[in-house]
Amino acid sequence: MKIDNYKPDYLVEAVYQLDPKRLQALNVRAVMVDLDNTLIAWDNPDGTPELLAWLLDMQENGLKVVVVSNNKQARVARAVEKFGVQYIWRAMKPFAWGIKKALRLLDERPENVIMVGDQLMTDIRAAHRAGVRSILVKPLVASDSWSTQVNRWRERRVWKKLIARDGEPVWKTSL
Q1: Is the pTM of this model over 0.85?
Q2: Domain count across the chain
Q3: Of the candidates 122, 115, 34, which has an alpha carbon nearest to the alpha carbon of residue 75?
Q4: For residue 148, what is the domain's CATH number?
Q5: What pLDDT, in 10s, does the model give residues 102-144?
Q6: Domain, as residue range, for 115
Q7: How far apart are CA 53 and CA 59, in angstroms?
């Protein structure tokens, strides 16, 4: 396992702290974002007012947004479709398939896109495989679905290696 494949480009406490102007300063024209525990809690079936406000802020500033989720279509659609957000479901992260599909949907090049997610093992790894920059955020809630719990166990092992090599991570409140 090459440890750099799991190292995010940025660490930000929450997706809702991302400023569209700062993203644009980094030549980002589109944001790919995970759903569960990134945009909304994994056990919340619906989108939230906070999600809507963030989406509007991104869109009003000219940034495209697409949700890239490993979850089922019904789950993703219920959470974001009412907000007019495009999405990729069953994205098969940590593989690059879903991110590459989103790139085609957005009609963007990898260097103009950033992937935001709460898991090293899926979101960050998939971003690396697709050649897209990445932002790791803290999970919105402390609990996880059973399948994510397995990834979190593996993720703790990767964090230990990253910390041993690079030191403690520094989480920021913005980019």
Answers
A1: yes
A2: 1
A3: 34
A4: 3.40.50.1000
A5: 999 999 999 999 999 998 989 999 999 999 999 999 987 665 5
A6: 3-166
A7: 10
